[in-house]
Amino acid sequence: MPAPLSSGIVTRAETGPDGEWAVRHVPGGSSVKDYRCPGCDQLIPAGVGHVVTWPTGEWGSVEDRRHWHLPCWNARGRRRPGLRRPR
User: What is the pTM of this model?
Assistant: First the structure.
């Protein structure tokens, strides 16, 4: 079950072929900073809704969180290796 944060933003768990992830939807009005999407290497401007993800379990932490365009996050399993921007 998703865990609500004090701000009302919900973080949910998602499992895929690439592991287990915490996924948080960030509404456009809550986004105050520019980010670079690791899926397409394009800018996510402030004010644009997107998702923040980080791996869960023993190998991940919130320090590993990344900001993605939602379509890029949903397509991450269909992308060729090497297209993601290195950390």
Answer: 0.76
